[in-house]
Amino acid sequence: MNTLLIILGAAVGAPARYAIDQYLRRFTTKPYGTFTVNILGSFLIGLCFRSSDSTKDLLAIGFAGAFTTWSTFMLDLYLAFELRRYKETLINIGASLIFGLLAAWAGIQIVS
Amino acid sequence: MIPLLLVASGGVAGTLVRYGIRILFPQDRPGVLIANLIGVALASALLVVMERRGITQLRLFLLPGFCAGMTTFSAVTIYAIEPAQGGLLYLATNVILSLVIVFIIIPIARKVIPVRK
Fold first, then answer.
1. How far is CA A40 from the centre of its chain?
2. Sign of the CA dihedral with B3 first, then A38, A56, and B23 last
3. Residues of A in contact with B4 (CB under 8 A)
4. pTM for the full model?
5. What is the ipTM of this complex?
6. Residue in chain A lying closest to B19 (CA)
7. Residue contact A18–B7, C-beta within 8 A
8. What confidence tens digit (pLDDT) does each residue in B26-36 have?
9. Any chain A CB within 8 A of the CB of B105?
10. DSSP state of B116
């Protein structure tokens, strides 16, 4: 049962990430899509902190796990660095980590 | 519609591999770290393949699907906060090892994978 919930969450989370990223790419070449999904997903996983195991399987491991991405975040950092956009690289890593941690923390606070 | 289905199926496959790696370990943190590092390594090589050979359906399944689904940002942020002990070290380990992998694999892949004539 838990595997089915994880599959269901991921089947929605991954295409939702892709759709948001493709949409934001119409307006900017900067990685705002990855940033947006990662912050939203961190908030959601914080909200799931005290949930039941099946809710965690569906929303935290399945949906938020597939909705957020670490690999694209790292590729974005490399590509900006390679183009000598050092300031953009630092802003992306700093803002993603700080707002990601704050979002997860805020989610936990709401359910605690 | 087809790109979304490819990303969804790749994302499900990647998520199941991440879950599989995670249950191999008694604690939550190491499994997510290992899934992230393997996913970053795969994604680095695939990025170069897509730069050189273009985007195909299989590559949509693999990069924004499988690799992005296998890796996760949200688990890193939550495990960096809870439990607080060792959280910052865990966050730094994810960031530093992933960057080392990207900075090694992309330049090597660009040398190894030729541009199709």
1. 6
2. positive
3. 15, 18-19
4. 0.95
5. 0.95
6. A61
7. yes
8. 888 999 999 99
9. no
10. P
